[in-house]
Amino acid sequence: MKKKTLSFILGGLVMIPLAALFIDSLTNGSTIIAIIIGILMVRLIIKLLTTIKKGKEIKLPAMSKEKSEHYESLGMSDQQIEFFRETMQTAKEQIKALDTNMNSVTKLKAINLRTDAVKITKSLFKRLADEPNKLHLADGFLYHHLPNILELTDKYIEINNHEVKTKTSYEALEKSAAMIEKVAILLLEDYERFVKDDMDELDVELTLAEQNISRKEEKNLEDITKETTASTPDKED
């Protein structure tokens, strides 16, 4: 990410002389107009660089030896590991913020109690941390539902904190609360989707275990029957 930002800055510096020539030809040598256009261009560049910095810079914690070995055992490349860790760090921060939001307002607390939204996000995050090779199964969770529910709770709290609330404000709060609950249900579906393979494997294991138990019970019943038959004396004629 830092290399891309540096390339962008260097590219911008290279374009400055060209931009100066363009401005000069555009303004026919008018110094005032050139200055105005130059200021606008500088402000635009600063805004773009600020946006890039906010959107891309992610501080990652030091990676433990165990984690590094775990990723390598899964055949992940350095680029894949970096992408996964950045994705998880973003999700971690969003879950932390969601937890705070859900416990800051009575209505949101009630929704969280009904849906276990925060608990589900934490559980799915933990499962994904252990199984990074299943990242594709959590795309809806990471890139849609988690960011959406966080944004909805942010907006709900913002409106709820208005000193004066109008009828429109209360209607917006009700709609937001209903939408938050719907997205919480989608989070549960995300979790079920992620663990589906594990549940399928469990079903297979349970079926095999039941079959083994049935066979053992049948065998035990046969053995008991044989023992009973052998120990029963023949009747005299």
How large is the count of helical segments?
A: 9
Percent helix: over 70%
* Model regions low in confidence, pLDDT < 50 over at least 5 residues: 50-55
Radius of gyration (CA) equals 31 Å
Task: Write out key terms for the chains shown.
0% strand
Quick recap of the structure?
With 237 residues, the chain is mainly α.
Structural description of this entry:
Mean pLDDT is 78; it is low at 50-55. It is flat and about 115 Å long. The relative contact order is 0.06. It is an all-alpha fold. It starts with a helix and ends in a 6-residue tail after the last helix. The protein is built from 9 helices and no strands.
Task: Please render the helix and strand layout as text.
Blueprint: H1 2-27, H2 31-56, H3 65-73, H4 78-102, H5 106-115, H6 117-130, H7 139-160, H8 167-194, H9 196-231
Helix pairs in contact: 1-2, 4-6, 4-7, 5-8, 6-8, 7-8
